[in-house]
């Protein structure tokens, strides 16, 4: 069995009629990590997660999950849990009875105590005996996670698990996922929220038009040398603008405006040039109250990778990342 990778995909292709949802995806996902899958609408995220869960099969390519080849007549191995497009639940049953019914459906003998513990872990104890019909989207998501926890998954696959969660609910779900990863569970989750991915994931896969644009450590993506737009709040906006115009590698952006009641300066620069600008401002007697990227480095990298057509260089980068992690 392959202990180096929880998931190995080579040339995975899936079409729906004329639509190519996944187009030759190569991927190696290390075990015990939280992997984020990001990409614009229609990029193929849900299709990929559905393949991992064995809900659908690829038209071409190879997929190995937890060391076992999956495909037509080869279902996903035990130990894989999760959901896409929201968890499948029985609206007329209570949360507790839903978990009992789902366990019975899987042929699992689960004690009431374990069901109670799973509900407590996702913060649903108080509504355990309420019918799911009245549950909000966030509560349903949490119940879906509780159902997955019951089987003690080795691979947990979740499509947009933070959807509909309030900030406290999100913290709780994040804590559950981190706890699972700490005990060796591999987690693959999709999200449109870069802040969620930054908070949770060590590795990220970026898909666009069914192809992998990046796969690897989050840090590698976010710390790529990339020019970003920064917002500076200073004690003297006019002098700050003049100093910015004179600082090497810094380009003031036109149309600066009010930001929280003060006048902000917007510049485009690489991170080292921004450090130079701050030093120059201090030397000129200008107080610097705040320096922050207008969009996070990860979001900027995401936009750059997904909004532009794929280049040969990106293709090389992606292939390189895949080759580094596994053989071909
Ligand atoms: N069952 C289906 N029948 C027809 N087309 C489908 C089906 N499932 C997915 N597609 C198409 O495949 C492409 C990829 O869809 P998918 O749902 O995997 O993307 P996604 O990245 O999850 O998108 P979103 O962020 O909007 O959820 C889209 O063009 C979609 O319309």
Automatic annotation (TrEMBL):
Residue span(s) of domain ABC transporter: 7-234
Signal peptide location: none
Positions of the UniProt region annotated as Disordered: 307-328
Keyword set includes Ribosomal protein: no
Keywords tagged on the record: ATP-binding, Nucleotide-binding, Transport
Highest taxon of the lineage: Bacteria
MF term (GO), any: ATP binding
Transmembrane regions listed in the UniProt entry: none
Family membership: Belongs to the ABC transporter superfamily.
Record PANTHER family: ABC TRANSPORTER, ATP-BINDING PROTEIN
Protein name: ABC-2 type transport system ATP-binding protein
Species per Swiss-Prot/TrEMBL record: Streptacidiphilus jiangxiensis
Lineage, uppermost ranks: Bacteria, Bacillati, Actinomycetota, Actinomycetes, Kitasatosporales
